[in-house]
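ARCHIVE CARD
Drawer: 12
Card no.: 0347
Subject: one protein chain, sequence and derived structure
Cross-reference: see card 0346
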Amino acid sequence: MSGHSKWATIKHKKAALDAKRGKMFTRLIKEIVIAARSGGDPDGNPRLRTAVLAAKAVSMPADNIKRAIMRGTGELEGGQIDEIMFEGYGPGGAAILVSVATDNRNRTVAEIRHAFSKQGGNMGEVGSVAWMFDRKSQILIEKEKATEDQLMEFALEAGADDVRDEGENWEVLSAPELHHQILEAFGKAGIETVSAEIAMIPKNLVAVDAKHAGSLMKMMETMEEHDDVQNVWTNADFGDAEPGE
């Protein structure tokens, strides 16, 4: 077990609001389109299968999912979306990764750069902070659904790497290729999940003091609100600070 960053829990709360606003549909459709470029069969395309499951979890209509897949495979027009990963530092020195899906690269680059600088951060070069993160399956489970000992034993038996405390939730981390295996194991055991995604998990957390926590959180929330942003990750540990919660 290790200390939590709070960002995973905050992101989940924001995702619930996004789902109500319909913004989640837009993000998931873009992800399905991009994933389907590697093949339109979810059974043979793990990334597409993850995207489709996420779409079904927020009750996206089957026709929407089908059309998004067809856009990705080229059967329908409108699949020209660029996938970009921005890297940089926020106020207080925390590393930031911003995943973007856009149909206007130049506009989005300028807007994300502005989001970094407005709050005292800096956008870096490709590879400047990505090495500080590992790509992992990340599954969140409410603490009331299982005790630490129960979840730790079950998760590790199912093939997970670690179980961490994320405040209101347990965070289960696994190798990306085991994502569906772990999810299915939880499903069979009747353990409900809060969220499940392939995420960029920091290798180590960087403490951010109260002086910088508010600016950092405002920066990341601004990025999350951007129409082209798919995801934002950080290695910030907010400690006892309560920024924006």
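Annotation on reverse: The chain has a mean pLDDT of 86. DSSP finds eight helices and ten strands in the chain.
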